[in-house]
Design a protein that fits this description.
Helix content is 55%, strand content 3%. By secondary structure, the protein is an all-alpha fold. The chain has two domains: 208 residues, Citrate Synthase, domain 1, CATH 1.10.580; 97 residues, Cytochrome P450-Terp, domain 2 (Cytochrome p450-Terp, domain 2, Orthogonal Bundle), CATH 1.10.230. It binds acetyl coenzyme *A. Acetyl coenzyme *A binds next to loops.
């Protein structure tokens, strides 16, 4: 009897059940707890979306107010963690700093936040503090003091404020808020799976989020948005898109920001971010980036039949907001932490150790030889 093929990369393998997010890859729909991402992007806020992911329902006004207040009150980093960030190699990437920062923070946190229990405290704390870690490291590496978080600003405004030291225009804060909503969860993507695997050993939430940050860092996952900017720079003008993209495809290089394991049509997050990227570029008086990406889309679709994913336009939005390229993936983490923590809490609520198996393909009967006889 022929053995069943092993699905590489666990493609289409169902490994758990979850009520947090659903991707309809054929219809191009993304659902958080029953709500279409397009509705949430239009009408919700990051804080409200985080509440939805954690509690499974939309908050009443007083509940949202309380959650926002609690998040705002948890933004401060212990000074020891700032010193850890200061001590990193000057060339450390912001994702390395974030991974180290989350791990270091854990040792200064109250024990109750580190117990593997289905309680929301650690989720709130990590979601509140990630923007502080990201922006503090960015300021430190530029030789500037970190900006103290402000409790009177919402999550997105405070993040931009800590990055630049200036209050952001409302429109900029709104675009970031939408981007944070769109990135907050995505079913069992690689980093969320990594978080759940860590949690399934009954390790703590901080360890799970450290695993997730390390996983998001890779260019096939969260790191793709930075590489889209490299592509934009390499192409330079819309008329060069054809030759650059065709050249890359002939060399069997992947075009970042295209393709997806689950979506077989356009990623709905890309559809929304394309509109915001266009509006921001128009407002700034330079439509070149969206024109280049439009051409790149045409060529990639014609040559490979691939559609854009979320990463194609997120970077263009972030760049228009003045965010440096190597902070794009950390911003992704600042949003996805809401989903990671929701999944970890779900894992704790009905846990069984995640421990798959491998088909062994090596030898079994070798005879050990002492070093001098090899
Ligand atoms: N550019 C060119 N070819 C591609 C691309 C791409 N972006 N994506 C897939 N393909 C091709 C592959 O070369 C392969 O072709 P082949 O069968 O001729 O060898 C085929 O499409 C299937 O691709 P896989 O890489 O096997 O598909 P998989 O489901 O494993 O990968 C992934 C999905 C990693 C997202 C892939 O499409 C990719 O590498 N995209 C570029 C990176 C990217 O944008 N990542 C962000 C994803 S969204 C997120 O994580 C937030």
């Amino acid at each position: 009897m022929q053995e069943a093929a092993i699905p590489r990369g666990l493609e289409d393998v169902v490994v758990t059940s979850s009520s947090i997010a659903f991707i309809d890859g054929r219809q191009g729909r993304l659902i958080y707890r029953g709500y279409d991402i397009r509705d949430l992007a239009r009408r919700s806020s990051f804080e409200e979306t985080a509440y939805l992911l954690w509690y499974g329902r939309l908050p009443r006004p007083s509940e949202l107010q309380e959650l926002s207040r609690r998040l705002a009150s948890l933004r401060t980093l212990p000074p020891q963690v700032l010193r850890v960030l200061e001590s990193l190699s000057p060339g450390a990437s912001p994702m390395e700093a974030l991974r180290t920062g989350v791990s270091a923070l854990s040792s200064f946190e109250p024990e109750e936040l580190k117990q593997p229990r289905n309680t929301i405290g650690g989720a709130l704390r990590l979601t509140a503090v990630l923007p502080t870690l990201i922006t503090a490291y960015h300021r430190i590496r530029q030789g500037e003091p970190p900006v103290t978080p402000r409790e009177d600003l919402n999550h997105a405004s405070n993040l931009l404020y800590m990055l630049t030291g200036r209050l952001p225009p409302l429109t900029d804060a709104h675009v970031l808020d939408v981007a944070l909503i769109l990135h907050a969860d995505h079913e069992l993507n690689a980093s969320t799976f990594a978080a759940r695997v860590t949690a399934s050993t009954l390790s703590d939430l901080y360890s799970a989020v450290t695993s997730a940050v390390g996983t998001l860092k890779g260019p096939l996952h969260g790191g793709a948005n930075e590489r889209v900017m490299d592509l934009l720079e390499e192409v330079g003008s819309p008329d060069r898109a054809e030759s650059v993209v065709v050249g890359k495809l002939h060399r069997h290089e992947k075009i970042m920001g295209f393709g997806h394991r689950v979506y077989k049509v356009e990623d709905p997050r890309a559809t929304i971010l394309r509109e915001y990227a266009r509006a921001l570029c128009k407002e700034r008086g330079d439509l070149t980036p969206v024109e280049i990406l439009g051409k790149v889309e045409e060529v990639v679709h014609r040559e490979k039949g691939l559609y854009p994913n979320v990463d194609l336009y997120s970077g263009t939005c972030y760049r228009a907001l003045g965010v440096p390229k190597d902070l794009f993936t950390p911003l992704f983490a600042a949003s996805r932490v809401a989903g990671w923590t929701a999944h970890v809490l779900e894992e704790y609520s009905d846990n069984r150790l995640i421990r798959p198996t491998a088909k062994y393909t090596g030898p079994t009967d070798l005879t050990y030889l002492p070093p001098e006889e090899r």
